[in-house]
Amino acid sequence: MLKLENVDAKYDGFKALDGVSMNVEQGELVVLLGANGAGKTTLFNTISGLLKPSAGRVSLNGQDVTGRKPSALVQAGVVQCPEGRKLFPEMSVMKNLMLGAYVHRRDRAGMKKTLGHVLEMFPILNDKKDDAAGSLSGGQQQMVAIGRALMGRPKLLMLDEPSLGLAPLVVKQVFSAVQAINQEGTTVLLAEQNAFAALKIATRAYVIENGRLVMEGDRETMLGNEAVRKAYIGA
Amino acid sequence: MDAFLQQALNGLTLGSIYGLVALGLTLVYGILHVPNFAHGALYMVGAYISYFIMVEHGLNYWVAMLGAGLVVALLSVLCERLVFHPLRHAPPIHDKIAAIGILLFLEALVQMHWGADFRRMPTPYTEIFHFGSLTLPAQRLLIIVGAFSLMGALHLYLKKTMTGSTIIAMAQNREGAFLVGIDANRVAMMTFAIAGFLAAVGATLFAPINLVYPAMGHLVIMKAFVIIILGGMGSIPGAIVGGLIIGFAEALGGYYLSGTYKDLIAFVLLVAILSIKPTGLFTKGVR
């Protein structure tokens, strides 16, 4: 579905991605493991079109989308739920969700249906729907962010560190939501530092270090790999 | 008491015009993240276009207002496309310099074409209403009603429509806006168009009780800056309330303190408010 070939990207003149090649197949839940500053967010922003690659090719279902605008990628079904959430803090939860469906704004019925689905997944958002998004707790804000991304009806959902800074119980909730989204047929690319929790729900995983993909494998291989365990699981 | 009410009414007139101009400035601030110094020039061009549609082409006041609104909206979009858009990756100081460049260019252009004379804009509304001992010229009533209707319409557009919300979304979180698929160019052009339209309509409303001349935008834009600093950069209610505060302060201060120094009042108030509340009146925390 998504394919990257030898993608380089520069960030403030510094080479943040170096020859990244990866692929994500329809229906998979692919985890991207890496420490802080390894290039996870840069890779996501390059796929989303926020950052233009300086070399290489990004394609979606065989179609070249290298260097396309973020709005074009959202139209094509690639939606990112970014690190730090990037909500519209002074707008209500409902408004945030509705803006998530911006590219489907002419399809009122479809928006309503997706909204019902999102509120079913995160019932707390229904209680908070008139509150300013910025006034919610971290976990609730993460739910708004995931909900907003789902409102764009992604074919490929990219989640950048959704568990960052959340309480363990909330982390569990977020991961089971991600798993449910994947099981309903949405392809997921998940960047995480919380390797064990992420690998448990993954189909496959990549490890990124200093802007390069250094390892790839399916769930069992990764969970069993000594280097991965040492670096990311701490066991 | 009568004098107070009369001055309050004058303050409301001034404040609603300041509010309109400051609204455009604050909306564009949400996109550019620097104050658009050229906004005062757009205000001035708006007054000139109205003047010439009315005086040279003999058309109706309302046609002139709409015409000026549309022409200046287009001019504002052109500024965005030709100047600010190509500078979007440059440091903010480039935007500021470019904005001053546009200001000087438009002023010089108007002066070359129409001269530096002071002109009086005619208005079809010359009646004067009396409420007890208060007098209210029809044009002032028109300013108040016109400005507040426009603010109301803008509020509804920004709050109730999806396209309007994109302007606010972009101001609150730029990357977040991109990631839901909002097209930055579209929002930028729309915002500049609205700001230009508001400036031209504000100028057309205000010009009949003022004068039309190439430097007419200077004081207005300086005060609009004071207003958006007071109200909090980028805040929409802040621009409206800030406009009214400055309007009232000027009218009342001009009457009770000194008419000579009335243009100073806005700036003194700015210093006073910023020393008590450095983030402005309506900012919620630091961005």
* Element pattern of chain A in H and E: EEEHEEHEHHHHEHEHEEHH
Number of domains of chain A: 2
Report the uncertain regions of chain A.
none
Share of residues in strands of chain A = 25-35%
What is the SS-derived class of chain A? alpha/beta
Distance between the termini of chain B: 43 Å
How many domain regions of chain B?
Answer: 1
Whole-number mean pLDDT of chain B: 91
The tally of helices of chain A reads 10
Order of helices and strands of chain B: HHHHEEHHHHHHH
Q: Radius of gyration of chain B in whole Å, from Cα?
A: 19 Å
- In which order are the strands of the major sheet of chain A placed? 6-7-8-3-9-10
Cα(first) to Cα(last) distance of chain A is 34 Å
Q: What's the quaternary structure here?
A: heterodimer
Q: What would you call the shape of chain B?
A: globular
Shape of chain A: globular
Structural class of chain B, please? mainly alpha
Notes on the structure:
Chain A has 235 residues and is of the alpha/beta class. Chain A is built from ten helices and ten strands. Chain A has helices at residues 40-48, 70-75, 93-100, 108-121, 123-127, 138-151, 168-183, 195-201, 219-224, 226-233; strands at residues 2-11, 14-24, 29-33, 55-60, 63-64, 78-81, 156-160, 187-192, 204-209, 212-218. In chain A, the strands form two sheets. Chain A has a six-stranded mixed beta sheet, with helices on both faces. In chain A, strands 2-1-4-5 form a four-stranded antiparallel beta sheet, with helices on one face. The two termini of chain A are 34 Å apart. By secondary structure, chain B is mainly alpha-helical. Chain B has one domain. Helices cover 73% and strands 3% of the residues of chain B. Chain B contains eleven helices and two strands, in the order H-H-H-H-E-E-H-H-H-H-H-H-H. Chain B has helices at 2-32, 39-55, 61-84, 92-114, 138-160, 162-172, 174-179, 184-206, 217-231, 236-256, 262-276, and strands at 128-131, 134-137. Chain B has a two-stranded antiparallel ribbon with strand order 1-2. The longest helix of chain B is centred in the N-terminal third of the chain and has 31 residues, at 2-32. The A-B interface holds A 48-50, 69-71, 74-75, 79-82, 85-91, 95, 98-100, 102-103, 105, 148-149, 151-152 and B 162, 165-166, 168-169, 172-173, 175-184, 284.
